[in-house]
Amino acid sequence: MKKAARYLTMLLVLFLSCSCTVVTTVETETYDLSEKVFYNTADRFLDSDDAKIWFGKDHSFVLTDSSADGADEITGTWEINENVCTLNAENSHLGFSGKILFEIRDDNTLTLKTSVHDSRSDDVYSTTRPERKPIQDDTSKTYYNVNNNDCKLTLNDDKTFVLTENNGGNEIYVNGVYGLAGNVYMFSNFEEFNDWNGEKVYNFEFFIFDEDTVILMEDLFASSRDDVFTTDGKMPEDFNEKQIDEKNFMDLWVHEPMEEIPDEYLPSVKFYTDGTFVFTENLYSGLGELKGTYEATDNGFICHVDDASQIQGFKGGDVKTIEFEYTAPGTMMLKTEICMSRSGELFYQAH
Can you tell me the distance from the alpha carbon of 68 to that of 94, in angstroms, rounded to the nearest whole number? Predict the structure, then answer.
């Protein structure tokens, strides 16, 4: 019995000694992003510092971006898995949170896969700083309201401004600082003031139509939303509201056909390049608009309503957020109840 056991043991040792294990090593490419700054190369940024990201050796990051609400600085940690760099946003001046994904093309080139404020999915980031011509070489200039030359806006080289508003001989002066976000001037006044409706104004914006023309985007003490300001105080030749709309217009989506509703009365939403939107709703007794700012995401749009004054008293007058979700190319589904427009209904891309 002992001999048999010893024999079996010898066979087992012999078998194990003859066995071999084949180890297959899969080489994965490694990337070095540390201590580098990547700049967004999209043409929509007039200033190369509007959107960029810095990667730290300790796997921290600092991402800056512009938005309709001003500049944002997002910080947190980063990690790489194969060719995907994931940013874990932990702090943000504007409350941005979640994960931001980049596809790594090489050590000096990234492709954004998650929209962040004015930066959009598929924007390319590069360590080579883009060369862009500023919208104007000299920002020390004065723009006059073409409807009232006593209302004027002066921009200084040191990024300060002076707004002069004259309402029937009652004149006020507003001082503060300004910045550039895409094609919009963002103004932050040192002291609040009342607009002509009696509402407090803490900051305001002008859309840049061209080098010598800016368009007011909200009401002030004497000036009104959509007022045109020019460097000579005169309306440009052949200038009209349609030009403003076309200059700033990006995308139009129209509600799916509805029985007994003519096409011109279907609900629709326009998205503009300055980060604003206008949702035109059918109120059964007429049309009304909801206005505000939007975020473009991989899944659709998130619209933040700032002005619903035209639909007060109707269903949807208290809506703060309108959400859309892509269902197919050129098609998205409304996820919010408004008035005639209901959650689950489709909007089709028309432009």
Answer: 11
